Amino acid sequence: MTVTVRFAPSPTGHIHIGNARTALFNWLFARKNGGRFILRFDDTDRERSKKEFADGIAVDLDWLGIDPDAVYRQSERMARYDEVKADLIARGLLYPCYESPDELELKRRRQRMRNQPPIYDRAALELTQEDRERLEAEGRRPHWRFLLPGHGENSGASERHVTWEDLCKGPLSVDLASLSDPVLVREDGSFLYTLPSIIDDMDMGVTHVIRGEDHVTNTGVQVAIFRALGGTVPAFGHHNLLTDVHGEGLSKRKGALSVEALRAKGLEPQAVDVVAVRIGTSEAIEPIRALDDLAEGFDLSATSRSAARFDEADLAAVNARIVRDLPFEAVKDRMETLGVPAKPEIWAALSGNLDTFADVADWWKVVTGPVERLAAVDDEPFLAMAAELLPDEPYDAGTWKSWTGALAKESGRKGRALFLPLRLALTGREHGPELAGLLPLIGREQAHARLKPV
Ligand code: GLU
Asked: Where does ATP bind (predicted)?
């Protein structure tokens, strides 16, 4: 069977780097196994799901290098979910409950006082047809719970322990006896994500479900429902979750780590890819050229069991390494977009000092000027001498060396005393790309004017 995975975000916000990690794990798993990748919008929550978020997620995935084989929206599959709902009701596996949130809270409080686990007591199973009619006449609407194994048709004791060989964590098990029967349909008739997800996984032939470890308990419940529906239970992998540097979980509301925000900061998608995939694994966070470079060595079982701390400094560092290494062919269009002439010698001169690609435009401004001239009063005679000794054009990569060699001899200066005043006068900055590369771009006329203004 073709390996089929899915990334199933609810479009209720922007995806963050932790969501990107889930998407990338699925994508790489599919790539490595010659499989298919489905993008599925879990948009059954009509209030909070927004088209603009779904569109944004598609753009983010494309930017990361993920190209889904198919896209689905749960909101377009409601008729199918209703059909399965009716089937489960007919079989007594989905039952109506009428307790209000306050009543449920009261029950839980009582259970805790008696040192009992706060599990739903299945009181609604005892309701007669008349009871239900009376409750509905009072204006109550039911929510619907799935009968976990241990009751009625679903009573096999062995079914109560769901065990699986997790692709990330090895053997895992969930004891369903420790859980409340899950609500699958809300009072207003809308579906929670649980059931539609299973129906979709079955209908779409999903073979592997790879998601965050916050879903482990859901998996126990979902496996029971897969079985009740006679579906093939997919393999599951639950990876560790990213936290921020303080160890706090990421959430869609914390926009700063959204993929969109990282893109707006001018980071390369490859940098985000490699950090999102390798953080919290034993593999090094090293520059990659393309997302596919990560596929070969990709190993779900290498995601460590503890949370992985995401530090933007790691991202910035690998981003700088990636940018500096980009071949001219890969950047020429981007240079033009930023108003920098697409010439190999310009890229060669400027690339070595970039943190983000957009910095190339700043350095190009330094080349073309005007720059703020920085010069200590004491250095003025030296700079005048430097201007005098500037060779005639044409300039090449060797010009800097021969010029500063002559200047060293004439002035008796060397090291920092020789180079820093030149850098400050020529670029207006203390640090930057090699002057040997910059000087030919600045040219004699400009260089002369910056060294010894008239
Ligand atoms: N919509 C769910 C979420 O965003 C999907 C979980 C899953 O992959 O099954 O958490």
From this structure: 252
Report residue 157's pLDDT band, with 50, 70 and 90 as the boundaries: low
Give me the sheet containing 36-41, strands edge to edge: 4-7, 36-41, 70-73
What amino acid occupies position 256?
A
Which residue among 42, 57, 198 is best mutated to probe the pocket of ligand 1, counting the most ligand atoms within 8 A of its Cβ?
42
* CATH of region 80-165: 3.90.800.10
Q: What is the mean pLDDT of residues 183-201?
A: 96
Q: Tell the CATH topology of 255-324.
A: Glutamyl-tRNA Synthetase; domain 2 (1.10.1160)
Whole-number pLDDT of residue 152: 45
Mean pLDDT over 120-139 rounds to 96
Q: Is the CB of 36 inside a 6 Å radius of any atom of ligand 1?
A: no
Tell me, using a 6 A CB cutoff, whether residue 241 lines ligand 1.
no
Query: Any known ligand binding at 252?
Result: yes
The residue written with tokens 């399965």 in the block is 84
| pLDDT at residue 247 tops 90 | no
Question: In the CATH hierarchy, which fold is given to the domain comprising 377-451?
Answer: Arc Repressor Mutant, subunit A (1.10.10)
182: left (phi over 0), alpha (psi -120 to 50) or beta: beta
Please give the distance, rounded to the nearest whole angstrom, from the Cα atom of residue 6 to the centre of ligand 1: 10
Q: Is the pLDDT of residue 155 over 60?
A: no
